[in-house]
Amino acid sequence: MDKEKAAKIVDYVVTTTKPLWEKWIHLSYKNLDDIFLARAFEQGGFQANIFYDILRNKGIASISSIGQILKNYEGSLKYSREEKGGLETEFYQELRMGKYGEEGVKFFESVEEFLKNRKGLPGMNFWRLIWYMLVDCNYLRKNYQSSFKHYLKSKYCQFKKIDYISDADFCGLSEEEWQNFVRETKPWRELCGVGPNVFDYIVRDIDEFRFNRDTYKLDSANDHFFRVTGIAALVNLNDRDSVIEFLKGLNLSHPYKIKEINTGIYAYCSRTEKKNFGFCLDKARCQECGVNEYCEKNFSEIGPKLRKRKCG
């Protein structure tokens, strides 16, 4: 594999999936709190956006509503499979019986509907991730006005040692200003289950942000793509910044932004879009791919397991 072949593969993949990813990448700053709920826990194959839709139908798709559930919870905030890893566990049965209010009952019903009606994929860490959702929403409710937007602005104000920043000025931060803030404060650290990749994913597609051109989520689909194609030999997949710099250095025939490349690769290689694409997931379908002549077809490559983040 060389950079010229890598460029042809990436350019083809992103161009091919453009009609799909163009529908995904235009989000509004005013909806950032909802975007947090729909994206912060979309990891390990968990289709959190579909779970979010169920929460919305139940009337509890807000940080405020979900944050109420643990308001009077007296147990440990650490995740335990025995205590919180199934509908039959003590915690979820207490939710069902109303110990944690109407919001708790509806959250139980949402989990039950998501799983029993098979509306979406739970992925490998479902129970852990929805526990993190409860913990994070409770934390934001108690400390940041039930708002991820307020959380971000507060962290930036602390960083700059100022009392206030307007929405317009926050959205207008330059890429350099944003990267300095992120590099120095690592603002995801107070949120359970949210690391730099997911944090970038939350802010990546907000239209009003000036600074998000080069945000990138190195998810399992992107990781799989680099390994199967052979591009992984050219870049350090353990260093997200190195991946970004590598992609910026490719001589693509289209001037795609990093976040567009990120989303295009996800669409091409994610299991949720396997019916539309899935060429890198199936050896037989690989033959139908328009750039398979440049690809190394390393289907035996296995990506790294997701690291579990300690919390609580």
- Tally of contiguous helical segments: 16
Low-confidence stretches: 303-309
What would you call the structural class? mainly alpha
N-to-C SSE series?
Answer: HHHHHHHHHHHHHHHH
The tally of beta strands, per DSSP, is 0
| Helix percent band | 40-55%
Shape: globular
Largest sheet: none
Mean pLDDT: 92
Oligomer designation: single chain
Provide structural commentary.
The chain has 312 residues and is an all-alpha fold. 51% of the residues lie in helices and 0% in strands. It has 16 helices and no strands. Helix 1 crosses helix 15, helix 3 packs across helix 7 and helix 6 crosses helix 7. The longest helix is centred in the N-terminal third of the chain and has 19 residues. The protein is globular, with a radius of gyration of 20 Å. 38% of the residues are buried.
